């Protein structure tokens, strides 16, 4: 299992620091687990392969392109700083 951990500062609260862990098996496109923490509380969830396909279709985006954008936003980290904004609600 692969895992990444990134520090994020959401645009909804730029002074706050959150930690985002993403874990996946073979490929992010086959689904992944996610943990978001503010250092005191943690929230977990999973995203299935079917949900990824559905979201790509809803956005009228090629599935492979959508998975690449997910990788950039959730995994790459430093290279994507400033390119993707996170809002916590």
General description of the model:
The chain is α+β, with helices and mostly antiparallel strands and 89 residues long. The chain has a single domain, classed as Dna Repair Protein Xrcc4, Chain: A, domain 1 (Beta Complex), CATH 2.170.210.10. 27% of the residues lie in helices and 31% in strands. It contains 2 helices and 4 strands. A 4-stranded antiparallel β-sheet has the order 1-2-3-4. Strand 3 and strand 4 form a beta hairpin. The protein is globular and about 35 Å long. The termini are far apart. InterPro entries: DNA_repair_prot_XRCC4, XRCC4-like_N_sf, XRCC4_N, XRCC4_N_sf. This is XRCC4 protein.
Low-confidence regions: none
Kindly state the percentage of residues in helix: 25-40%
Write down the overall geometry. globular
Query: Mean pLDDT across all residues, rounded?
Result: 90
Give a quick account of the main beta sheet: strands, pairing sense, barrel closure. 4 strands, antiparallel
How much of the polypeptide forms β-strand, as a percent range?
A: 25-35%
User: Number of DSSP helices?
Assistant: 2
Rg, Å, rounded: 13 Å
User: Strand order across the biggest sheet?
Assistant: 1-2-3-4
- Please indicate the count of domains: 1
CATH class: Mainly Beta
* CATH H-level superfamily: DNA double-strand break repair and VJ recombination XRCC4, N-terminal
CATH topology term: Dna Repair Protein Xrcc4, Chain: A, domain 1
SSE-based structural type: alpha+beta
């Amino acid at each position: 299992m692969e895992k990444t951990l990134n520090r994020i500062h959401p645009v909804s609260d730029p002074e706050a620091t959150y930690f985002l862990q993403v874990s996946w098996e073979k490929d992010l496109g086959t689904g992944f687990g996610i943990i978001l923490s503010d250092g005191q509380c943690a929230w977990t969830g999973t995203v299935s392969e079917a949900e990824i396909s559905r979201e790509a279709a809803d956005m009228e985006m090629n599935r492979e392109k959508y998975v690449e954008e997910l990788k950039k936003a959730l995994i790459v980290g430093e290279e994507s700083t400033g390119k993707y904004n996170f809002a916590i609600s």
